[in-house]
Structures
1.
Amino acid sequence: MSASAETAILKTSHLLGIEGLSIEEIVGLLDLADTYVALNRAAEKKSALLKGRTLINLFFEASTRTQSSFELAGKRLGADVLNMSVRTSSVTKGETLLDTAATLNAMRPDILVVRHYDSGAAELLARKLDCSVVNAGDGSHEHPTQALLDALTIRRRRGSFEGLIVAICGDVLHSRVARSNIHLLAKLGARVRLIAPKTLLPSDAERFGVEIFTDMRKGLAGVDIVMMLRLQLERMTGAFVPSTREYFRFYGLDREKLALAKPGALVMHPGPMNRGVEIDSTVADDIEVSLIQEQVEMGVAMRMAVLDALARGLARGGRNT
Amino acid sequence: MSGKRIAFRNARLIDPASDLDVRGGLLVENGRIADIGPRLFNDTDPSDPEVVDCKGQVLAPGLIDMRVFTGEPGSEHRETLESASRAAAAGGVTTIVVMPNTDPIIDEPSLVDFIHRRATATARVHVVPMAALTQRLAGETMTEIGLLMEAGAVAFTDADRTVANTRVLRRALSYASAFGALVVGHAEDPDLSAGASMTEGEFAMRLGIPAAPTAAETIIVERDIRLVELTGARYHFGQISCRASLEAVADAKQRGLPITCGVSAHHLALNELDVGSYLTFMKVKPPLRSEADRAAMVEGVSNGTIDVIVSSHDPQAADTKRQPFAAAAFGAVGLETLLPVALAIHHDGRASLKHVLKALTETPARILGLPGGRLAKGAPADLALFDPDAPFVVDPAELHSRARNTPFEGRKFQGRVRMTFVGGECVFDRAKDKQP
């Protein structure tokens, strides 16, 4: 498989968010990911597509699953992968980030995967660096590969998005996963509902073109896919919701509430889960309804597809010209 | 609930909810109003064993008092739910809404349940608890509004405290709105009113008492109106006490915001001059205002800007009132003087009897979502029978409350409760009343 001979899937050399992607780009990525699912299930998982390329994982926020998923994706495609975990320094954020960018540029990577606690950080790096940048989560803005892997998981189960009702439940206000999924699902023709206490909804959430519910029981009626969001620990104890037990009572997904969704409804969670806070173990661990493990598998394939698509844009001998 | 039948005949039936003010009769069966009408029991004596001849006096829905402080749990020497309920019954009040600033503070579902259980076991009128809006009333983190509602909290309030942190209040209002919960606010800027015992003005100046301007109230009223606009929460000002606040509320209502407000009986009947020579029974929260502000409160009730009249019943032990004015406790008892004070608005020709009663029955029931407050078939038989014209002089020794800190000692009023019924049971009969 020669990268440069393939047709371009992405129009830009970065993947910074879902909002700027066309339907064709998204479908192209999903189709490509399907081929990597097959590769990952084979005994010989290695490809030489990115041989000689350097991938840097730059994580300003702790992450196990996303970082290892990108690392595995890079390695299976034959790239040299470097993981950099940067301790956060709140004093001179902007300056530090630009300093880091200059340092990284000098190392001449081909692809930079970045997670940062500030919205817009990935875009800033993309402007300053000569390599391709993949946003692995920036503040409360976007987490495009999560939305893509969620879409891949749904498409492989349901075939199409037309007419599907997807409920995104929980801390929408702070969630980059929610924002990326809202954009992506809407582009693919699904109907999106947001279910959350009002304190965890952006005040203009309906401007996303979604339906808003503060009563989970009403919001789940007729839903095909229930996407749970993680509630950060520091947001559980009074500032946004009064307590974890109250949150679980009204917004935690348990058997009783799931029964209000469409029969056969499927459950997703980007992980890591807070059992007994946003999701009950009997739901999370039920392989009949829970897609949570499948999401992890799709994550590696989806990220291989993203790296592949970006590599097609890389000129022979590196981007730097 | 009583299984028996009671026939009320020869009554002046007043029901603000159905705009009724007519001679007639009323039948109670199984604790509920079974029938009502102008011709009921008119011609022949009803065959029922129990007949109450109302002698042309007013039979109205029992009063609902939205602001009552008791000492249970924690300060039972001041007032228990039982003693407050006796005072309520003697005042024609059939539902008391109790504040959460007890010890412990009612900020936990199990404590709401405790109030319900204690009330069921000891109280003779309905006791409806409000829960704290913020944990420990500290104004920092919201309480478990959903779970507290399920436990039976009828509204959320930090009682006599203002949530100073605007962001905390915004989030609490926002969260509450999704549950359709009612938030009841106390409007008194804590910094501006710190240490104050009176309203800023000439009189406080001459007495040398630390005082706060009425703006301490209006600033919070205006702030909270903005937050209601932002969040859409159902919001009730527990009590307002000055013209500027009244105008702010009137404007908010004009704009269609879900805002209501109350006024205490003492702010309708007393002004700052009643403090006289440092009478600590006149020390209330917020403090008594100028005569112009008092008159504005009467006007607010007359024109309907003020939705409800409350007693702000706040029993205080003698030792905390026998103090220099600035050191004395805030608060006045008021359950037994609520009706006569309110009736004075009618006697002064400022409003119809029906209009005054509306602010004590139908409107609080509607704001709180309670089943009472009306004379209708099927409604709970919570009734007050009173002579609206009977004159009397307030004698603290005759009060049923455990505390006697009334600001109305020796004051003449018109309007006395004769009998009070809760769920069809007679809980007060002046003819048989023995002082505790």
2.
Amino acid sequence: MRSERGSRPPRALTIAAVAGLLFLHVPLLLIFVYAFTTEEKSYQFPPPGFTTKWFAVVWERQDIWDAIWLSVKVASVATLIALVLGTCAAAAVSRARFFGRDYISLLFILPIALPGIITGISLRSAFNIVGLDFSFWTIVLGHATFCIVVVYNNALARFRRTSGSLIEASMDLGADGFQTFRYVVLPNIASALLAGGMLAFALSFDEVIVTTFTAGQQSTLPIWMLTELIRPRQRPVTNVVAIFIVAVTFIPILVAYYLTREGEHTAGAGK
Amino acid sequence: MSAGAASITLERGGLARRTSDALFRRPALLLTLLLVPPLLWLGIVYLGSLFALLAQSFFSIDEFSGLINYEFTLSTYRELFRLANLDVIIRSLVMATAVTLASVVVGFPIAYFAARYARGKWKALFYLAIMLPLWSSYLVKVYSWKLILAKEGIITWIAQKLHLVWLLDAVLAIPVIGGPSLSISYLGTFLVFLYVWLPFMILPTQAALERVPGNLIEASADLGAHPGQTFRTVIFPLALPGIIAGSIFTFSLTLGDYIIPQIVGTSSYFLGQAVYTLQGTAGNIPLAAAFTVVPIVIMGLYLWIAKRMGAFDAL
């Protein structure tokens, strides 16, 4: 138990912490201001005037809708693959000890631990060697590879908190392996899978480094954004797209947070 | 009761039942079935491509025809040590080190406050305040700094309002890190890197600080240490594995990034950009592959040292 006596933080610490948090949040808030600016040619601050017309302009833009749709499709398929593979791996690692078990976690973490450019360039050169043309599936291939670890981590944490006696009890009561999975294991890990899936979706929806190598001429939303960043042509439109992306990625993170926060207890361990 | 039991016994003969029984009797088979799909995926798609790439670093490129010469050679690696290429490597290392050190300085107070003083609702708020920037879009974060650092942007405006334009000009006049404007200087690149990777430092540091037992701090105080001494001799050493774990992320991510220096910064290359240009417009895959070995080796060394200092227990 931590002592609460004299637990007022020193003033310097409070100032440093608040300043740090402001540093983390003010830049994102600033984008919301810029989405309403009337200035088209520069990033002038403070904006000379405010307007909501850019939202209507973005609404009419077919290329942006196409990019969003491609991103959604890629993220959905990649998340699905990651869910299946990540859950399998987590189930195996949590239930048994076997040769090389410690290296499996390392293997899964590698795609996000090594710089993304390495994953990207190796995939592209592998596509070249095999003679695979860029397509929807080349993007999915790259994304699923680094999404697996997110699902794996979430599922593994939950598997470790789920008591093995629940599964034994189900078996003792006459359920077969599939019934046990359907009625005992799945309900227990469902919220962890949902959280992992949402984070994987957010990760894929936002990914740009690997995608630049695996997309060819296709344009996902982050690729569209990157082209605008390098050669700004339509600044106000980019501002609006930016706050759209912020909104879309915040929702799954908040939901994932609430899903994994509850149920800190180990299911079935109390008895 | 008996009806339920009967229905279960009836299913005994079913295919699902037999499969399930077979799997139950041979746990090794079940384990294999669970492990093979993910291992195949990562083994073939990821490791396969990675090794194929690394193998190409032992080929060379014909200077005249521009074609790849498929014979084993170390000449590509020799090329890495050309002055221009060494420059790129050193520049990236210095930047990664600077970003890592700065993120410790900026991140530690946040982590410390969140771990020791935030309670209840504030604790959740702190957690979200760190998680949201961590998970929000990378490109949007970079974009927001393009807005901030622009010559006509908010920093210049604040400097004007506070009559501090001379200070801004003085900072920009510093050789090496300065430049014509913040968005075309190493200082700008550094700020964006720091902003984007900072949450990766805060989270493991906070996790390590949460695990420091309160009675240890009380004991230190009881034994006559003043708060500063307690911090130096008790809290900081215990937080160090967390800081090192965080530094793995900040260092590795800075080392491999090629988008941030492309958007905010000078025209000189960082590691990631060099790799990108070499494999793309230059078409020199062997040298690009040799370049990717550099961060892999550096990170390998880094991870080895980190492991020896116990950083993995803090992850």
